[in-house]
Amino acid sequence: MKIKIVKKNELKENFFEFTEMEEINVVKDILLDVKKSGDSAVRKYTKNFDGLDLSNFEISKKEIKEAYEKVDDETIVAIKKAAANIEAFAKKQMQCFKDFTCEINANKLGQKVIPLQKVGVYAPGGLYPYPSSVLMGVIPAKVAGVKDIIVCSPKISAEAIVSADISGASKIFNIGGVQAIGAMAYGTETVCKVDKIVGPGNKYVTAAKKEVFGVVGIDFLAGPSEVMVIADDSGDSKLIAADLLAQAEHSPDAIAVLVTNSIDVANGVNEEVEKQLLDLKTKEVASQALENALIILVDDINEAIEIANKKAPEHLELQTKCNEELMKKLVNYGSLFIGKNTAEVFGDYCSGTNHVLPTNGSAKYCAGLSVKDFVKIVTFQEITEEGKEEMIDIAAKLAGVEGLDAHKKAALARKK
Fold first, then answer.
1. Cα–Cα distance between 35 and 122 in angstroms, integer?
2. CATH superfamily of 4-19+223-351
3. Is pLDDT above 70 for 126?
4. Are 171 and 142 in contact (CB under 8 A)?
5. CB neighbours of 73 closer than 8 A, spacing ≥ 6?
6. Cα 261 to Cα 256: distance, rounded to the nearest angstrom
7. Going by DSSP bridges, is the β-strand pair 107-115/375-382 parallel, antiparallel, or unpaired?
8. Domain residue ranges of the chain, discontinuous segments joined by +
């Protein structure tokens, strides 16, 4: 099958529109049941939706050991290497967040970086198990200093269990869906209530995260996965097609877009997509996603910048002769992949950056998961005898302007 080719001026405005999340009434009912009935509700919905009849859904030490025996040595080595890269990058990020004190007008002020106490990491089951999502959620939390990190994943695979153990998760649970989000948000007899829930999931999981926000923190609301490739006539059609297909196989509603000023690259990508689809094991899913994929033709590669900044894709790849120049002008994306060697899948698994990224245009105002999601940056102040007089005058004046008399009096009460 061929991807539809359109010119920039033929793009429909809804290509750039934020897709509002649909209300799923059953989500509220499940969450309320979990809140009221705890473990028994979690077991009920796990049996209904996942077909698992679990008396105990916490993974035991014995089951962790058995998981290692089920996973081949090469996979364990790959998980450990990926974990090491993710940890190294997270540690570098953490260096950006430091305690400090300063003096302003003779008064002492400062900030403290405090890790969250309890975090829940959700890893999807869905069409495919995602042990990589376990690594991406647990490791930055661990580096940030979170003490209790629990992992929930439906029909949890041996690889996901091993990933959770290698990452340093405190507890692992064989539960998913709305019931897992409810368990982490409200707490049950078995699952502790957490302070924040992170990780991707299907539309039911995302709707549940939206519903419990406020009871707990969340990272962000993720929609279908997205990739946009910007390429000029130097782009490699074979590699671009491979990357578009890698995105398309996520789900039937995944979004794959190429923006190019080269009709030869556009046609070459379509030829390669047809060729590579033939022996793709996930052809059925990828073909459905490609029905909504696009190749956008622009007159000038700089027009691609305008499209990318307006769309704010989750993953943005550059295959041009002027990557460095384009980088300076690109401001809206979840993560950037520069040059032919930089497959988006490297970011998915092992380069070190996080693959939990904003979608659906939200990269305009938020960034991907990082150590920052697992700390609070709080401030403190100590007003000195020397510095208080000016503070009193300013605060009393502004309080009077706002009509807050008790505020004014609280300031003036400290006057000599």
1. 18
2. Nitrogenase molybdenum iron protein domain (3.40.50.1980)
3. no
4. no
5. none
6. 17
7. antiparallel
8. 4-19+223-351, 25-218, 386-412
355 has catalytic annotation? no
Catalytic residue at 250?
no
User: Is residue 157 over pLDDT 90?
Assistant: yes
The whole-number average pLDDT for the span 386-402 is 97
Per-residue pLDDT of 311-351, as tens digits, reads 999 999 999 999 999 999 999 999 999 999 999 999 999 99
Selecting among 226, 314, 317, 344, the annotated active-site residue is: 314
C-alpha–C-alpha distance, residues 270 and 17, integer Å:
26
Give the C-alpha separation, 26 to 46, whole Å.
15
Q: Which CATH code fits 25-218?
A: 3.40.50.1980
* The pairing of beta strand 315-319 with beta strand 335-338: parallel
C-alpha–C-alpha distance, residues 270 and 165, integer Å: 42
Point out the catalytic residue in the list 250, 272, 315, 344: 315
> Residue for token digits 């605060």?
395
User: Is 0.90 topped by the overall pTM?
Assistant: yes
